[in-house]
Amino acid sequence: MSSQKKSKNKIIIIAVVVVAILIVLHIITGFVLLSPSNLLILAGNMAVPTIIALGFTFIFACNITDLSPGAIVLLTANCAGIIGNACGSPVAAIPAMLVGCIAVGVACGFINFTIYRVSKIPPWIAGLGMTMAYEAIVGIYSQARANKGLQVEFLRDENRILGSQPWIFIVLIICVVISYIIYNHTTIGINIRAAGCNENVAKTMGINVSKTLIIGGIIAGLFFGIAGVVKESVSIFTPAQGGLTSLSTVFQPLAAVLLAKALSKNINRIIAVPISTFIIVVIFNVLTLLGVPSGTFQEFLLGSVVIIFAVFAQRGVKGVVK
User: Fold this and answer.
1) I need a labelling partner for 269 at 20 to 30 A (CA). Which of 92, 149, 159, 201 fits?
2) Is 241 inside a domain boundary?
3) Does residue 259 fall inside a structural domain?
4) Tens-digit pLDDT profile for residues 13-53
C-alpha cells in the first residue's frame, strides 16, 4: 500500500473517530452540543484563538519560542478601541481599525524578531521581556485614563461588526486562506520553514536567514493585529493586564498549534489549525454544558491538554526541543 493511500486511510479513520465522539458527546449533553445554535456559538468562540494560532504557526515555523503574542493582542485590541471610536461611523472605523492594528501587530513582530536575531538572547527569555513591555504600555494608557476618571475605550456597538455574525466567520475564513497561501504556496513561506528547520542548510541554499525569520515574525504580527480587532469587537473592551497575566491568552491557541503539529503528519498544517481549535473549544463547551464551572478546573484541564498535545507533537523529534 502506497504512503499516500495510507495517509488518506488515516485521515478517514481520524474523521470517523472524531465524528463518533462528537455524536456521543451530543447525546451526553442532551442533544445540545451539535445543535445549530450551539455550533454557531462554537464557531464564534474559536475565531480569536484560531487567528492567534495561525500567527503562532509562523513563529514556530521559524523555530522560535515566543509567548508574547498574548500581550501583542492585548495591545492591538486596545488600539482597536481607540481607533474605532475616533473614526466614528463603521464605514471609516472598520478599515481604520484593521489597518491600524495590523500596523501595530506587524511593528511588534518586527521588533521582537529583530531583537532575537541581533541580541542573540534566547527568544523565550526576550519574549517574556517584550510581554512585560507591551503589558506596561497598555497599563500606562489605562492609568492615564483612570487619572481622568475614565476607563479604557469601550468600542461603540456600531463599530463591533467584525465581532458579530457572519462577519466574524468571514474574517476567520479569510485569515485561514491567506495563511494557507503564504505558508504553502509562496517563496517566503517555503524559505521560513527552511530557515526554521536548519539555518546552515538554508544559508547554503542562498536564503538570507535573518531577513527571512524577521519576515516570519512580521507575518505572525499581521494575524495578531487582526486577532486584536476581532477580540475587541467581541468583548467591547480589553482591560489592562500586568505581571505576565496576558500569557493566559495564548494557552488555548498554543494547544491548538501543538495538536495541529501532531495532525500535520496526515493533514496540512494550516488546515489542521482551525480543526484543532474547534476540538479544544468543543472540550470546554462540553464541560460547561455538563455544569462544570469555568475557573480552576477548566484551567487545569487546559494546562493538561497543552502538555498532552505537546507530547504527541514531539513524537519522533530527536534532540533538544528549542
Assistant:
1) 201
2) yes
3) no
4) 878 888 898 899 899 999 999 999 999 999 999 999 999 99
